[in-house]
Amino acid sequence: MKLDRTARTILSITALAWAIPFAQAQSNAQAAQVGVIQPQAKSAEFDRLDADGDGLLSYQEVGHLDGYQEAFAQADRNRDARLDASEAITAHQLYERSLATRYAQDTWLTTKVKVALLREEGLDSGDVSVETFDQRVLLSGFVEDAEQKRKALLIASRIEGVKDVKDALALRK
């Protein structure tokens, strides 16, 4: 199934409209500390993470949170390698923004790959699903033959920002 030019344009514009605000969060991450309200009250989440109960969070106490180290370093204003309650709030806000940014970037890559597959002449990509996580794309579903499979994988791998393409495509019999 091929989309006509109008449908492809609408799909592209819609995806762009949803992705832009999240992608801009990436560029604003450094400015996030300026002007952020810093409540002083500890939260239940802070208490849960504060395993040793000293009222501070260490790298070890938050080490299980994937990708939290950068937010921790940015929020540690006094550079003592520990976060008090207000620094922890800042770190949590930065961490949540980075997760939203990654999600938006993955969504944008998924859209770019889908549009590129739909635009390709001679490729029936109507039954091809595209999933993206951490800039790694998974193509699954069905294609007509080995040539279409090769073409789909090649197209996905050429999209700017795609780190890797995994193949879960099956040939129709």
Descriptive notes:
Residues 29-39 have low confidence and may be disordered. The longest helix is centred in the middle third of the chain and has 35 residues, at 85-119. Strand 4 (136-143), helix 6 (146-157) and strand 5 (164-171) form a beta-alpha-beta unit. This protein folds into 2 domains: 24-102, Recoverin, domain 1, CATH 1.10.238; 120-171. It has helices at 5-27, 44-49, 59-62, 68-75, 85-119, 146-157; strands at residues 57-58, 82-83, 128-133, 136-143, 164-171. The protein has a 3-stranded mixed beta sheet. The chain is an alpha+beta fold and 173 residues long. The protein has 6 helices and 5 strands; from the N terminus they run ααβααβαββαβ.
Q: What can be said about this structure in brief?
A:
This protein is of the alpha+beta class. Helix content is 51%, strand content 15%.
Task: Please describe the topology of this protein.
Elements: H1 5-27, H2 44-49, E1 57-58, H3 59-62, H4 68-75, E2 82-83, H5 85-119, E3 128-133, E4 136-143, H6 146-157, E5 164-171
Parallel strand pairs: 4-5
Antiparallel strand pairs: 1-2, 3-4
Taking the alpha carbons of the first and last residues, their distance comes to: 18 Å
What is the highest CATH level, the class of the largest domain? Mainly Alpha
Got a strand count?
5
Mean pLDDT across all amino acids: 84
Order of helices and strands: HHEHHEHEEHE
What proportion strand? 15-25%
Features:
173 residues; alpha+beta; Recoverin, domain 1; 2 domains; three-stranded mixed sheet; two-stranded antiparallel ribbon; 6 helices
